[in-house]
Each structure stands twice: as C-alpha cells, then as structure tokens.
Design a protein that fits this description.
single chain, 343 residues, alpha+beta, 8-stranded antiparallel beta sheet, 71% helix, 16% strand, Homer_EVH1
Length: 343
C-alpha cells in the first residue's frame, strides 16, 4: 500500500523567483526525475522530484490546478499550498505533451476523489443530526402512544447509521495512521536515496570515464575504418587499372598474332620487292635515257629556234631588198611608160 509511482519522466526543474515573481530560478543543475505518485490510503496525487538529498518538488494536485504550456518544451503550474510556481523544461515536445496529458488525467482523478470525500462527510453529518433527533424522540416516545411506533423504528435505523458512521471514523483514523506510516517510509526512502547518491555519483563518474574511453576507441575504430575504406578505394582503382592493362595486353597479343601471320609472307614480299626494285632500276635507267634524249631534243630545239631567228632576220633583210627591187622595177616601168607616151 502507501504511495506508488504511476508516471515518471526527466526534466529541468525551475521555481519562480519569490522576489520578482517574474524570473525563473533553476532548482536543479541538470535534468532530474519527476514522478507522479498516487496515495492509495488518502486517494490523493502528488508530483515529487528529488535532486540528490533535496526534495525540490512536493506538490499535491488539486482540481483547481492548471498546467500551462508556455513553449514547445516548457510548462508550468501554480501551487498555492507551496506558495510558488513550478516550471519544467523538457528535452522534446513529445515529453511535454505526455506530462501535460498525465497532469490533466490526475487532476480529473483528484476532482472525483474530492467529490467522493465530500459525499462521505455529508453522509456523516446527516447521521449525526439524525442521532440528535433520535435522542429527543426517545424521550417523547416514553410518553407517547402506539401512534409513535413508526417514528421509533426510524430512530433505530438512524442509530444503526450513526454506529456505521463511528466505524467509518475509526477507519479514517486507521487510514490517517497508514498515511503517517507511508510518509515515514517515504522519508526513510529519501534518506536512503540521499545516502546512495554518492555511490551513484561514483558509478556515474566511472561510467563517464568508461564512456569517454569507449568514445575514444570508437573514434580510433572509425579512423581505422576510414583508412580501410581508402585502401579499398585504392585497391578498386588498382583493380580497374589491372583490368585495363590486361585488356591492352590482349589487344597487343592480337596485334602480335597478326604480325606473326604477316611475317610468314615476308619472304614472298621481299622477293616481290626485289623484282619491283629491278623493275624500278630499269625504269630509272630508261628514265635517264629519256631525260638524256629530252635534253638533246631541247638542245636541238634551241638550235632550231636560233636558226629560225637567224632565218627570220635574213628573210627580213631579203624582203627589204626585194621590196627595194620591186620599187625600182615599178619606177622603171613608170619610166618606160612615160617614154612610150612621149614617143
């Protein structure tokens, strides 16, 4: 029995500055555990958070409380009994939403619990009033007649109800004692928690050192993996280069095979080359003879041209002389004609 945790999360805890009522004052140096507790005996709900040996939140939830989201990761509520305002900063919006939904759920449960408690108180009050009336009626019944028998029966019923109410009071006293014992156990648990904080701090320090060592080891392994990846990349490049060289080698072998096949016909080609060389030498000799003949013909042509020029000069001179002779002959004929005319 006693108080039991029904929801737990982690958040940074703040309280409103009592002097300014505006600024937030951190109640924890880091994120701490914040839990909803349900007290079975009292049928009540509380929000409790402990930082080391210090209780930083002990807020009993009432139906008139309201949890307000002021940002995506921050929420707050006012506690009139503690005369302060608590604020919680979460690492994600999802955690804030879950806490707010649980707050509303617990608030509704607290409202139902209060209504049931009020119903019990009203029932107890009615029973007490009925008991007083019952006592007066008993005095009257000693002097009353048979007509009051029914009223006496009703008074007996009220007495039974009063007895039950007394039993309920005893039960509530037992529940109150149970609540006190629960608070004592909670105090003991808090003391034990405070005693174990140092051990937790030592374990945390050891875990943090181990974490740093593992992180350093992970960095080394990542560096080795990077080197391995670089070597793999180099190997891949070398493999591609080897494949290219093998392809070139196959091409060269193919060319070499072709050359070998061609080398088999080299003797025949050499024989043909010798035959062609002889033909070429003969053609060169014939060409030389032709060039000599051409040169001789050129010389004959030059001499012929010279003789032609000389003949042209002589012919020109002869024609000039001939023209002179013709002119003389014409003059002679004219003279003869003139003589004939005179005679």
């Amino acid at each position: 029995m006693g108080e039991q945790p029904i929801f737990t999360t982690r958040a940074h805890v703040f309280q409103i500055d009592p002097s300014t009522k505006k600024n937030w004052v951190p109640a924890s140096k880091q994120a701490v555990t914040v839990s909803y507790f349900y007290d079975v005996t009292r049928n009540s709900y509380r929000i409790i958070s402990v930082d080391g040996a210090k209780v930083i939140i002990n807020s009993t939830i009432t139906p008139n409380m309201t949890f307000t989201k002021t940002s995506q990761k921050f929420g707050q509520w006012a506690d009139s009994r503690a005369n302060t305002v608590f604020g919680l900063g979460f690492s994600s919006e999802q955690q804030l939403t879950k806490f707010a939904e649980k707050f509303q759920e617990v608030k509704e449960a607290a409202k139902l619990a209060r209504e049931k408690s009020q119903e019990k108180i009203e029932t107890s009050s009615n029973h007490s009033q009925a008991s007083s009336v019952n006592g007066t009626d008993d005095e009257k019944a000693s002097h009353a007649g048979p007509a009051d028998t029914h009223l006496k029966s009703e008074n007996d019923k009220l007495k039974i109800a009063l007895t039950q109410s007394a039993a309920n009071v005893k039960k509530w006293e037992i529940e109150l004692q149970t609540l006190r014992e629960s608070n004592a156990r909670l105090t003991t648990a808090l003391q034990e928690s405070a005693a174990s904080v140092e051990q937790w701090k030592k374990q945390f320090s050891i875990c943090r050192d181990e974490n740093d060592r593992l992180r350093h080891k992970i960095d080394e392994l990542e560096e080795q993996c990077s080197e391995i990846n670089r070597e793999k990349e180099k190997n891949s490049q070398l493999k591609r280069r080897i494949e290219e060289l093998e392809s070139e080698l196959r091409e060269k072998e193919t060319e070499l095979t072709d050359l070998r096949k061609q080398s088999e016909i080299i003797p025949q080609l050499m024989s043909e080359c010798e035959y062609v060389s002889e033909k070429l030498e003969a053609a060169e000799r014939d060409n030389q003879n032709l060039e000599d003949k051409v040169q001789s013909l050129k010389t004959d042509i030059e001499e012929s041209k010279y003789r032609q020029r000389h003949l042209k000069v002589e012919l020109k001179s002869f024609l000039e002389v001939l023209d002179g002779k013709i002119d003389d002959l014409h003059d002679f004929r004219r003279g003869l004609s003139k003589l004939g005319t005179d005679n």
